[in-house]
C-alpha cells in the first residue's frame, strides 16, 4: 500500500477526456458457454460539451471492430477513421475526419467482441459440479471498481452516471438476469442458432460499476417485501439447479432488510425487484449491483442443521451491508474513489443496524467493537495507514483502499457520529441527504451539510480530522482534582496521536481531533467535547473504595484511553467483583487498550496480562473472544520464545479449558445463538493452548467423521476439529491423506472450506511442501480460495520453518500467480501477505524489501517488471513491514520482563499485586489479597479432585492448608505436633485417614464460604452505585462456627460403647447446625431487603470494606478445623474406635458441606436482587425487617432446646448421661451465640438504615412524612405479630423441655440476662460501636445493643422494648422449666411444618424500575466475520 504521512498530495487522476458526457447506453450481448466468448453492440448517447474530432472511452480485453457516430436529429453519420486500443491505460480512442459539434447529442455505435475470462472480473465464467457430478459453467459479472470496460466500451467512472437498456441473446434452456426486470422475451436466430432474446427495463441513472448480468442453469426461491413507502418488491435468491432451496433463509432476510431501510430513512427502494445470486467463483464477499446483488455461494446459501451459527451471522451481515448499498452507493454515489468510504463506511454501519434490528439477541454492536473497530484501530495506528478520504488516481491504487480503513474505520466514525448526534437526528439527516442527491453523485461535505442542518452542530468541523487525517488520538488523564465538599471530580485530559510503534514525533502529532467524550461512572453518564489538545472536565463523583469512572462509554468513540497503572488495576478489580457495572463493549475496550499500550511501550505486557485476572469469571463470549485474541497475539509475536509460549498456553487452558465441560462438544436443542458461539470460542482457545482433553476429543470425532458420521461435530467446530487433528498429529501422513479425502469427497461447500483452511497445520514440513504443490492446481482449489490453505500454515507448530517454506514458495511462483490473481480484487495481495503477516525480526524486513526492489533479479528489465508488479500490493506490503518492525521492537522491549514474570510465577494465575507497580488503594489491595487466597484454595481443591485420593492426597492437602496458613500468618504447627504424638502404627494410620477426610472436606467448606463472601461483596458494590448507606455485617460466622462445633463433637468419642450415643448426638448436631444455617440465610435475606430499600432515595453512608475480617475468619476456621481434627483422634486407641470416628466425621462433614452450599446459593440470590434494585433510581421506602429477625432468633433458640431434649432420650446409663449433657450444653451454647450474633448483625444494619430514613424524613414534605408514619405503623404491627409468635413458640418449648438439661439451659439463659448491669454495658457498647463492628457472644449483648440504639423513631423504640421483654420472659420461663418433669412430646413434624409454611409465604424481592441514566450491560454477540469486507474485499 502507498505510504502516507499526513496530508495527501493530490495526483492527477486517470480519468477520461471531458469533451463528452454519456447519458444512456443500449447494450445488446450474445454470450456463449461453449466458446467462452461474447459479441455485442453498444449505442451510447453523448452530450457534447466541447467540439471534438476524437472520442476516448474505456475498454479492456474488448476488441472494437467497427464504430461510427451519428448526431441525434441529423441524418449525418461520422465513420471512424481510426480505432486505437491502449492496453496500459485501458482505453480505446475513436478518431473522426469531421468534428462533432458542441451542444449536440451524439450517439456512438460500436461492434465488439470479448471473452468470458476465468479471472472473476468483467463478464466471466464460473465453474461448479452439479448434483450428478458433472462440471458445468455459469456466467456472472463483477464490474467494481473498473471492469465494466471488460464487457463493452464505456465511460467507466463513478461520476459519469447514465441509464442502461440491456438485451441478452441466450440459449433457450438457460436463465438470464440483469439489473432490471424482464420486459419481453422472443426467439431470435443469430449465426444460425435459435436463441432466446430477452429485453429488460431501463435502469435508473447509475454508475457503470453497478452494471450486472448473469446466465446459467439457475433456479430460485421468492418472497415479496411490503415496505411502508413505495411499491411491493419481488425478492428472489438464485443458485444453480439443486441448490435453490438453500436460498430460502436469505430471501426472507432480504425482505425484512428492505422494509427496514425504507422505513428508517423514509426513502423508497426505486426498483421493482431485488435478485440475489450465489456465484461459485467470486473474488469478493459480495457485490451490490443495483437490483442484482452477487455473492460468494457460501455467503448466501443456508442449510439448517449444516450451516454454522457464525456463518449464519455472516450471511445476515453481508445481506444487510449489500442492501444498504442500494441507497448508499447506488442511489447516491461518491463522485470519485477517494470518497469510497461514503459507500463502504456507511454500508458497514447501517448494515449492522439492520442486523441488530432483525436479531437483537446476537449483540451485533458488541461484536462490531470486538471485530471491526479493533481491526481498524490496529491498522490506523501505523504510519503506513491512510486517511478515510484518500486521494487515489490509478486502478491499482483504487483497489488497495478497499481495506479496513474505508470499511471498518469508516463504519466506526459513523457509529461515533450517530451516538453524538443521536439516532433520530442522524437518520433524519441521512434521509435528507439521500433525497437531495438521489440518482446523482455527492461528496463527504454534502453529507456533513445535511447532518448539520438537522442537528444544529458544525459536523464538518467536527469530522474533519477523522476523515481527512490519518490516525486517531489517545486520551491521557494527566491529573485529577477531587472536591469532597461538592462531591465532584475534575479530570485533566490530553490528546495525542497514537502510534503502535510508540515513537511519536512532533511532526506526527499535528492533528487536533474533535472528540465526543462520554464519561461513565457509578454516578451516571456524562457527555463532554474535547476540541483542544488538553482540557478539563468536571462531573459528580463521590470518593469511595468502589467508586470509578471510565472514558468512552460503550467504546462508541474511535480512540484509545490511557489510564495510569493504579487506575487500570482498580478497573480490573472492579470488573472482577462487579462485572455488570461495565458493558461488554466497555470491558472489551479496557482489554484492547491495555494490550495496545503495552505493545507500544506505554505500559507493560505483564501488566496487561494481570488485568485478565479481573476477567477470570467472564462469561460473555464476545469479551472472551477478545481475551483469546490478545493471548494469541502475544504467542504469535513471541513464537520463538518457548518458555513464553508455554506459560501462555497454560493460561489459555486455565481460562478456557475449565469451561469446556459445561458447554460440551455437541449442540443442545433450543440453545441460543450465543451459546453456540461460546462453545466454538472456548473449544478453539483451549485447543490452541494444547488442552489434552480437548485435543483427544477432537481427534476422536475426526475419526468418527471419517467413518461417515456427519454429526460427529457441529458445523461450527469442523475447522477446529480438522486443524487440531493435523496440528497435533501422531501419524501425519495418514491424517493428512484422510483430510484430503474429506475435502475431495464432501459436497457441502462450507465443510470443504473448513478442511481447506486447516491443511497447512499438518505436523510434518514435507507435507506442507506437498500442500503448496497442490495449491497451484485449479482443480484442487479455486482461485478465490487460494489464500485459505496458505494462511492455515500460520497455525503450524513448526511456525518458523513452515513460514520460510511458504515464503520461498511464494517468491518462486509469483510471476506465474500474478497474471492469474491481479485482476481479482485482493487475491494477489493475500498471497503476498500470507508468508509475512505474522513474522518477527529485522532480517525478515530486509528480505522483503530486497525482494520488492528486485535485488534478486538478474537484469534491469526484470527489476522494473518487479517494481511494476509491486504497485498492486505496495500499500499492504508497507503495512506488513511496519507491523513486523513494531512487533520486533515489542519483543525486544518485553522479553526480559516476560521471562522474569515466568520465573516468579509457579502457575498461570498472574496476580495484579505481582505485576503492577504501585499504587492500589487500600480497599483495592484488600480485594486483591482476598482473591489471591481464594485462588490458592481453589487450586488446592482442583488438585485434590484430579488426584482422586491417589498416592499423595494427604501430602497435597497438608501443603495446601499450610499455604493458606502462611498467607494469613497463622501457625499450623499443631497439626504436625498432634500427629507426632500418636504412639502406635495402627493409631497413626487411623489419624492419617481421619485427618485427611476432615481437613480436605473442611478446606472445601472454607472455599465455598469464601466464595459466598465474594458474592456478598459483589452484591454490596453494585448496590452502592449511588451513595452506599450502611455497613454490611459479616454473616458467615454462624456457618463457620457450626462447622467447628461439628468437628468438636468428635472429641467426646472414647469407647466402642458410646458409638450409638455419638451417632445419635451427631445427627442431632447436624440437624441443629443445618437449621441454624437456614435461619442465618434468612437473616441475610433480611439484610438484603434492608440494604436494597435503604438505597432507594439518597444513601448517606459508604460501605466499609468487609473482606478482611471475613477472610481472616474463614482462614482461621480452616486452621482450627485442622487442629481440632488432629486433637480429635489423639484419644483414638483401638481399631473399633476408628470405625466410630470415621462414621461420625463423614456424617458431620458431609452435612456441613451441604449446608454451606445452600447458604452460598442463597447469597447469590441476594446478589441478584441487590443488583437489580440498586442500578438506577430507587423508588421504594424501607420495608419492615423486624419480623424475620425476631422469628430467626426465637426459632433458633427453641429448636436448640428441642434438639437437646431429643439428644438425651438415648441416655441410658450414668456414664453416657454425662457425655450427652456435655454435648448438649455445647450445642445450646453454640446455637444461642449464633442466634445472638445473627440478630446483632441485622440490628446493626437495621439501626443504620433507620437513622438514614429518619434523616431523610426530616427534610421531606408532609406527604412523605405521612408515608413514613404508615411504614412505622406497619412495623409496629409486625412486631406485635412477632411477639405473639414468640409466646406460642415459647409455650411449645416449655412442653418439650427435659429435666436432664435443666441445669445447662438454666445456666445458659441466666447468663444471658443477669450477668452484669445493663446500663453500664450499654455505655461501653456505644463507645465501641463508633469505630468498629462489635462481636458479642451472649443474649446480654443483644439487650445492650438494642438499648444503645434508641433513636427518635418509633420503629427503634418498639424493637428495643420487644427484645428486652422477650429476654426477660425467656429467663423466667427457663427457671420454671428447670423444675418441671421431663415431658416427651414429638416436635419434629411441627418444626418441619413450620419451615415449609415459612418457605411458602416468603416474599420474592421486587425489581426497582430503571432510571433513564442507567448503564446496562448488553447481551453477548459474534466472533470475527468470515470476510474482512463485504463488497469487493
Strand order of the largest sheet: 3-6-5-4-7-2-1-10-13-12
Q: Total strand count, please?
A: 28
Q: Figure out the total of helices.
A: 43
Helical percentage: 40-55%
Low-confidence stretches: 1-10, 907-992, 1016-1063, 1087-1115, 1125-1142, 1166-1191, 1204-1221, 1245-1250, 1256-1265, 1293-1302, 1304-1322, 1328-1358, ...
Largest sheet: 10 strands, mixed
Strand content: 5-15%
Rounded average pLDDT: 76
In whole angstroms, how far apart are the ends?
15 Å
Outline: globular
- Secondary-structure class: alpha+beta
The radius of gyration is: 39 Å
Structural account:
The N terminus and C terminus are likely disordered. The chain is of the alpha+beta class and about 1450 residues long. Strands 3-6-5-4-7-2-1-10-13-12 form a 10-stranded mixed beta sheet, with no helix packed on it. The longest helix has about 45 residues, at about 1215-1260. The protein contains 43 helices and 28 strands.
Amino acid at each position: 500500500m502507498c505510504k502516507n504521512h499526513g496530508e495527501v498530495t493530490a495526483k492527477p487522476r486517470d480519468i477520461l477526456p471531458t469533451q463528452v458526457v454519456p447519458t444512456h447506453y443500449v447494450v445488446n450481448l450474445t454470450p456463449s458457454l461453449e466458446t467462452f466468448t461474447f459479441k455485442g453492440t453498444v449505442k451510447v448517447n453523448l452530450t457534447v460539451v466541447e467540439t471534438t474530432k476524437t472520442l476516448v472511452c474505456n475498454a479492456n480485453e474488448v476488441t472494437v471492430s467497427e464504430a461510427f457516430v451519428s448526431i441525434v436529429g441529423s441524418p449525418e453519420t461520422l465513420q471512424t477513421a481510426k480505432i486505437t486500443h491502449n492496453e496500459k491505460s485501458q482505453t480505446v480512442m475513436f478518431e473522426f475526419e469531421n468534428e462533432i459539434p458542441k451542444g449536440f447529442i451524439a450517439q456512438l455505435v460500436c461492434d465488439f467482441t470479448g471473452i468470458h475470462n476465468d479471472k472473476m472480473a468483467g463478464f466471466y465464467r464460473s465453474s461448479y459440479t452439479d448434483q450428478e457430478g458433472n462440471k458445468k459453467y455459469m456466467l456472472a459479472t463483477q464490474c467494481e471498481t473498473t471492469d465494466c470496460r471488460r464487457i463493452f466500451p464505456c465511460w467507466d467512472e463513478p461520476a459519469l452516471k447514465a441509464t442502461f437498456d440491456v438485451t441478452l441473446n441466450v440459449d433457450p434452456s438457460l436463465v438470464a438476469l440483469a439489473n432490471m426486470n424482464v420486459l419481453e422475451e422472443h426467439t431470435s436466430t443469430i449465426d444460425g442458432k435459435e436463441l432466446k432474446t430477452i429485453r429488460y427495463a431501463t435502469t435508473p441513472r447509475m454508475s457503470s460499476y453497478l452494471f450486472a448480468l448473469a446466465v446459467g442453469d439457475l433456479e430460485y426461491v421468492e418472497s415479496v417485501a411490503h415496505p411502508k413507502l413505495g411499491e411491493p418488491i419481488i425478492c428472489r435468491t438464485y443458485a444453480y439447479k439443486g441448490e435453490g432451496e438453500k436460498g430460502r433463509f436469505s430471501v426472507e432476510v432480504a425482505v425484512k432488510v428492505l422494509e427496514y431501510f425504507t422505513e428508517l430513512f423514509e426513502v423508497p427502494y426505486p426498483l421493482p425487484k431485488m435478485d440475489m445470486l450465489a456465484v461459485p467463483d467470486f473474488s469478493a464477499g459480495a457485490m451490490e449491483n443495483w437490483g442484482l446483488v452477487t455473492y460468494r455461494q457460501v455467503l448466501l446459501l443456508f442449510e439448517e442443521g449444516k450451516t454454522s451459527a457464525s456463518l449464519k451471522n455472516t450471511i445476515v451481515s453481508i445481506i444487510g451491508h449489500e442492501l444498504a448499498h442500494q441507497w448508499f452507493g447506488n442511489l447516491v454515489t461518491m463522485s470519485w474513489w477517494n470518497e469510497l468510504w461514503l459507500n463502504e463506511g456507511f454500508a458497514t454501519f447501517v448494515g449492522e443496524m439492520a442486523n441488530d434490528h432483525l436479531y437483537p439477541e446476537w449483540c451485533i454492536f458488541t461484536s462490531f467493537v470486538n471485530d471491526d473497530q479493533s481491526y481498524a484501530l490496529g491498522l490506523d495506528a501505523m504510519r503506513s495507514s491512510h486517511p478515510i478520504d484518500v486521494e487515489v488516481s490509478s486502478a491499482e491504487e483504487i483497489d488497495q483502499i478497499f481495506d479496513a480503513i474505508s470499511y471498518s474505520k469508516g463504519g466506526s466514525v459513523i457509529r461515533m457520529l450517530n451516538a453524538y448526534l443521536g439516532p433520530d437526528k442522524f437518520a433524519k439527516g441521512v434521509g435528507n441527504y439521500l433525497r437531495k442527491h438521489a440518482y446523482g453523485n455527492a461528496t463527504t461535505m454534502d453529507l456533513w451539510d445535511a447532518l448539520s442542518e438537522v442537528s444544529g452542530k458544525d459536523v464538518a468541523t467536527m469530522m474533519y480530522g477523522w476523515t481527512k487525517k490519518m490516525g486517531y488520538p489517545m486520551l491521557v488523564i494527566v491529573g485529577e482534582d477531587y472536591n469532597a465538599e461538592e462531591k465532584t471530580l475534575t479530570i485533566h485530559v490530553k490528546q495525542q496521536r497514537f502510534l503502535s510503534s510508540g515513537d511519536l514525533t512532533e511532526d506526527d502529532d499535528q492533528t487536533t481531533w474533535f472528540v465526543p467524550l462520554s464519561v461513565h461512572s457509578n454516578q451516571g453518564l456524562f457527555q463532554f467535547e474535547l476540541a483542544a489538545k488538553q482540557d478539563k472536565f468536571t462531573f459528580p463523583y463521590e470518593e469511595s473504595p468502589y467508586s470509578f469512572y471510565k472514558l468512552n462509554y460503550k467504546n462508541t468513540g474511535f480512540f484509545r484511553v490511557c489510564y495510569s497503572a493504579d487506575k487500570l488495576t482498580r478497573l480490573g478489580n472492579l470488573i472482577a467483583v462487579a462485572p455488570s457495572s461495565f458493558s461488554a463493549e466497555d470491558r472489551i475496550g479496557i482489554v484492547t487498550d491495555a494490550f495496545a499500550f503495552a505493545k507500544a511501550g506505554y505500559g507493560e505486557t505483564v501488566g496487561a496480562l494481570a488485568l485478565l485476572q479481573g476477567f477470570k469469571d467472564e462469561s460473555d463470549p464476545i469479551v472472551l473472544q477478545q481475551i483469546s485474541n490478545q493471548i494469541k497475539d502475544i504467542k504469535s509475536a513471541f513464537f520463538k520464545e518457548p518458555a513464553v509460549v508455554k506459560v501462555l498456553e497454560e493460561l489459555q487452558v486455565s481460562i478456557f479449558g475449565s469451561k469446556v465441560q459445561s458447554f460440551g462438544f455437541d449442540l443442545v436443542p433450543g440453545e441460543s445463538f450465543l451459546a453456540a458461539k461460546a462453545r466454538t470460542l472456548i473449544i478453539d482457545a483451549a485447543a490452541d493452548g494444547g488442552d489434552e482433553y480437548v485435543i483427544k476429543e477432537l481427534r476422536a470425532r475426526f475419526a468418527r467423521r471419517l467413518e461417515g458420521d456427519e454429526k460427529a461435530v457441529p458445523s461450527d467446530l469442523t475447522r477446529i476439529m480438522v486443524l487440531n487433528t493435523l496440528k497435533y498429529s501422531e501419524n501425519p501422513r495418514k491424517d493428512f491423506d484422510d483430510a484430503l479425502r474429506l475435502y475431495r469427497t464432501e459436497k457441502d461447500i462450507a465443510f470443504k472450506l473448513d478442511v481447506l483452511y486447516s491443511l497447512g497445520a499438518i505436523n510434518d514440513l514435507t507435507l506442507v511442501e506437498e500442500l503448496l504443490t497442490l495449491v497451484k492446481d485449479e482443480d484442487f482449489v479455486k482461485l478465490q480460495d487460494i489464500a485459505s490453505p496458505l494462511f492455515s500454515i500460520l497455525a503450524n507448530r513448526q511456525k518458523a520453518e513452515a513460514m520460510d517454506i511458504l515464503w520461498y514458495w511464494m517468491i518462486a511462483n509469483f510471476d506465474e500467480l500474478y497474471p492469474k490473481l491481479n485482476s481479482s480484487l485482493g487475491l494477489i495481495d493475500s498471497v503476498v501477505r500470507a508468508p509475512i503477516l505474522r513474522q518477527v525480526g529485522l532480517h525478515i524486513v530486509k528480505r522483503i524489501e530486497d525482494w520488492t526492489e528486485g535485488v534478486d533479479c538478474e537484469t534491469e528489465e526484470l527489476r522494473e517488471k518487479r517494481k511494476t508488479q509491486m504497485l498492486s500490493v505496495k500499500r499492504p506490503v508497507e503495512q506488513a513491514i511496519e507491523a513486523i518492525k513494531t512487533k520486533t521492537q515489542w519483543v525486544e522491549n518485553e522479553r526480559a520482563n516476560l521471562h522474569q514474570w515466568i520465573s516468579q510465577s509457579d502457575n498461570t494465575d498472574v496476580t495484579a499485586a505481582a505485576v503492577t507497580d504501585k499504587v492500589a488503594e487500600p480497599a483495592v489491595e484488600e480485594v486483591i489479597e482476598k482473591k489471591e487466597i481464594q485462588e490458592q484454595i481453589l487450586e488446592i481443591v482442583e488438585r485434590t479432585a484430579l488426584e482422586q485420593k491417589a498416592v499423595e492426597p494427604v501430602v497435597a492437602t497438608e501443603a495446601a492448608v499450610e499455604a493458606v496458613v502462611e498467607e494469613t500468618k497463622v501457625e499450623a504447627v499443631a497439626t504436625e505436633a498432634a500427629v507426632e504424638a500418636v504412639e502406635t502404627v495402627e493409631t497413626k494410620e487411623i489419624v492419617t485417614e481421619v485427618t485427611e477426610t476432615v481437613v480436605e472436606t473442611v478446606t472445601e467448606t472454607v472455599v465455598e464460604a469464601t466464595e459466598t463472601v465474594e458474592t456478598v461483596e459483589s452484591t454490596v458494590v453494585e448496590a452502592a452505585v449511588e451513595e452506599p448507606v450502611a455497613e454490611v455485617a459479616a454473616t458467615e460466622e454462624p456457618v463457620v462456627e457450626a462447622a467447628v462445633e461439628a468437628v468438636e463433637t468428635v472429641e467426646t468419642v472414647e469407647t466402642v460403647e458410646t458409638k450409638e450415643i455419638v451417632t445419635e448426638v451427631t445427627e442431632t448436631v447436624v440437624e441443629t447446625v443445618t437449621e441454624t444455617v437456614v435461619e442465618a440465610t434468612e437473616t441475610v435475606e433480611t439484610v438484603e431487603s434492608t440494604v436494597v430499600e435503604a438505597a432507594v432515595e439518597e444513601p448517606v453512608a459508604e460501605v466499609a470494606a468487609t473482606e478482611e475480617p471475613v477472610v481472616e475468619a474463614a482462614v482461621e476456621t480452616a486452621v482450627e478445623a485442622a487442629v481440632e481434627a488432629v486433637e480429635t483422634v489423639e484419644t483414638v486407641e483401638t481399631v473399633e474406635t476408628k470405625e466410630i470416628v470415621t462414621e461420625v466425621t463423614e456424617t458431620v462433614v458431609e452435612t456441613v458441606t451441604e449446608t454451606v452450599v445452600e447458604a452460598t446459593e442463597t447469597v447469590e440470590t441476594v446478589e441478584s436482587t441487590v443488583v437489580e434494585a440498586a442500578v438506577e433510581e430507587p423508588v421504594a421506602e424501607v420495608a419492615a425487617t423486624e419480623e424475620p429477625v425476631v422469628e430467626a432468633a426465637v426459632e433458633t433458640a427453641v429448636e436448640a432446646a428441642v434438639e437437646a431434649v431429643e439428644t438425651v432420650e438415648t441416655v441410658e446409663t450414668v456414664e453416657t448421661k454425662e457425655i450427652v449433657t456435655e454435648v448438649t450444653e455445647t450445642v445450646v451454647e453454640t446455637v444461642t451465640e449464633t442466634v445472638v450474633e445473627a440478630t446483632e448483625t441485622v440490628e446493626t444494619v437495621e439501626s443504620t438504615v433507620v437513622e438514614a430514613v429518619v434523616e431523610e424524613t426530616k427534610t421531606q414534605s408532609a406527604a412523605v412524612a405521612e408515608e413514613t408514619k404508615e411504614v412505622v405503623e406497619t412495623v409496629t404491627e409486625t412486631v406485635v405479630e412477632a411477639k405473639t409468635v414468640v409466646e406460642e413458640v415459647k409455650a411449645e418449648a416449655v412442653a418439650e423441655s427435659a429435666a436432664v438439661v435443666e441445669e445447662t439451659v438454666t445456666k445458659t439463659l441466666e447468663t444471658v440476662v443477669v450477668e452484669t448491669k445493663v446500663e453500664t454495658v450499654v455505655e461501653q457498647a456505644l463507645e465501641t460501636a463508633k469505630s468498629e463492628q462489635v462481636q458479642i457472644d451472649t443474649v446480654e449483648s443483644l439487650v445492650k445493643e438494642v438499648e444503645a440504639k434508641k433513636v427518635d423513631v418509633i420503629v427503634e423504640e418498639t424493637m428495643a422494648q420487644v427484645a428486652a421483654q422477650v429476654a426477660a420472659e425467656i429467663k423466667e420461663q427457663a427457671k420454671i422449666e428447670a423444675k418441671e418433669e421431663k415431658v416427651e412430646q414429638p416436635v419434629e413434624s411441627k418444626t418441619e411444618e413450620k419451615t415449609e409454611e415459612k418457605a411458602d409465604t416468603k416474599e420474592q424481592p421486587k425489581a426497582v424500575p430503571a432510571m433513564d441514566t442507567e448503564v446496562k450491560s448488553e447481551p453477548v454477540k459474534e466472533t470475527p466475520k468470515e470476510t474482512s469486507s463485504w463488497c469487493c474485499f
